[in-house]
Amino acid sequence: MLSVSTAWDDIGRYIMKRLEEDTDPDAMDENLRADILRIIQKESSATFLLVCLNMDTILAEPTIYKRRQALEKITKDPGLEGAYNSTLDRIRQQSGGKCKLGIEALMWISRSVRPLKTEELCHALGVEPGAEDLIIDNVPSMEIVLSCALGLIIIDEKAGTVHLLHKTLQEYLDKHSIPFATAHSMMAEICLTYLNYRSIRALSPNPGYGLDQVLRTMPFLDYATCCWGYYAATGVTEPVKTLALRFLGEHEKHISALILWQHSSGKYNSNYDNIMSGLHCAAFWGITEIADAMLKTECDVNGGDCQGSSPLVWAAKHGKERMVKFLLEHEDVTPDSPNNFGRTPLSCAAGRGHESIVKLLLERGNVNPNSSDRECRTPLAYAACWGEEGVTSPTGKCHNTGI
C-alpha cells in the first residue's frame, strides 16, 4: 500500500507534468504556476481523480485571469462535487452541438439498463427525432463523444463498453438529476424512433442464423428492442405513445419480436413466423396505457403467440401485476386459456412466485386452480418445484390463495 507521502509526491509530479504540457503558455505565469501547485495539492486530499478534474478545469481557461478565477473557485467549492460542477459547467459552455452531445452521452451512460457498447452509444446519439431513417453522417465518432464529455467518460477497451469516469460521478448525477429530468421519456423516444426507421422495418422478421450479422450492422437494434419498454414504463408521453403504437402495430413482422423472444426466453426461435403480437410486447413491459390504446382497435386480447400464449400469460409470467389487473378487466379476456403446452396464466404466475398475481387470478372465480399442463403439472406443482415460499407452504397449500 502506498504511503500518504508517496501519494503526495505522485500528485505533485502529475501537476508539474500537466503544467509542462500546457498548450497555452501565454495563459500562465510563475506566480499562477506556484499557486496551482500549492492549492491543488492542498485541496485535493490526495485524491488523484480530483486532481485530474481540477487541472482540466484550470487549463481549459484561455487567460491568466480566467485560470486564477477557476483556481479561486476550487478553494471555495473543494471536493469532487465542486469538480463535477465545474466540469459540467464547461460541458454546457461548449459551442454548437458539442454541449448537447456531451450531456446526452452522460445521460445515456448514467441511465443505461446495462453497459453500453461504444457503437451502441454512438448510434443512440446519432438518432434524429422525427427522421424516417438513420442518417449515418449524423452518428458521431467515439473520439468526438469523449472530447465533448471532457474526460467524464471512459472506455473499457477489453469489453468495448463505455462507463462514467468513477462511481462517485454516478452518485453525483443521481443526486443532481435536473439535466436528466426527462431522461426516460427521451430515451424511450430515441429507441422507438430507431425501431421505426425504414431500414429497420425492412429487415426480415426471422433472418435465421443471420441475426448476429444484422445486430452487427445495426448496433443499436438490440438495446432499443430490449430497453425501450423499461424507459416508457416510467411514464408514457404522447410522443412515446404515438411511436410505440406505430411500432407495435406490425410487431409480428418486425425483427424486434425475434430479438425480444430470444432475450425473454433465453432461446433462439427460428422455427416460427409471427412470433408475438404488439399486445404481447406491451404485456411483457406492463405498459397498460399502450395496451389500452391497442385494444381499442381490432387487437385480440386472447390472441396467442407462436406457442399459443396469450398476452395475459406474458403479463402473469413476467410479474406485471398492473397489466394482469388491466387485462382481467377486459370483458372478452379468457383468464384460464392455456398455451400449446397447457400452461395457463395461473400456472406461469405460480411457477415464478408472483403471489399477488396468483391471488388476482383466483379472485376471478372462473380460473381452475387444479388445471394441469401436458406434463400433468398443476400450478401448485410448479410453485413447489420452484420453491416459491410466497405461494406454497410446507403443507403443500398455497398461502391465502385457496389452492
TrEMBL record:
SMART domains: ANK (SM00248). Residues 91-176 form the GPI inositol-deacylase winged helix domain. This is Ankyrin. It comes from the Eukaryota. PROSITE patterns: ANK_REP_REGION, ANK_REPEAT. Keywords: ANK repeat. ANK repeats lie at residues 307-330, 341-365. InterPro entries: Ankyrin_rpt (IPR002110), Ankyrin_rpt-contain_sf (IPR036770), GPIID_WHD (IPR054471).
